[in-house]
Amino acid sequence: MQSFAFQNSSTQFQRKLISGNQSTGTHRASIKAAAIREAVNVWQESLPGKAQETITQLIVTEWHLRGGKGLNLSGSLQNAKQNLFRWIDNPRGSEKYERYVSTLLPVIADVMPIEIARQYGLKQGMTDAELVASAVKECSEAHHAKLMGWPIEKLEKEVREAAEALLKLLPIESMAQVASGLVVLVPGLI
Asked: Is the pTM of this model over 0.70?
């Protein structure tokens, strides 16, 4: 067996290597701010007329409904629009504006059309048409299971999936009322 001697003669050039995957929190925030900026631009293009006013009104209304504080979005709609779009556009790359936009992210994503929000990774979920299509599919599978005389375990699974798909059509606050109505149909179950 042979042995080799190795000598590292490159000590003068040693530096700490930083991988591209070791991004900082600010880098992530700026990427998210860029996604929001692009999504809002697409949203503006999809709206006829006074798009910025419409977008501002939706965001400000939702922000106040959620009890939002700490951002200057009160006062006139014009002032709110100027502030909001200054933060979103962020021409100087201000970290403060990126924090403001990050704070508003849940509100912006919720009032924005879901198709645009999904496209830019701001939100997950299904459109109303997709929810209806899913419910129709699950209900037809439950009908098929019953008509074909499938085992009770398979029928229960299909009916449960159909019920879940139908409940997703409702707003969250209405689900409890419908579920309590179902409990009345089957006394002693719960």
From this structure: no
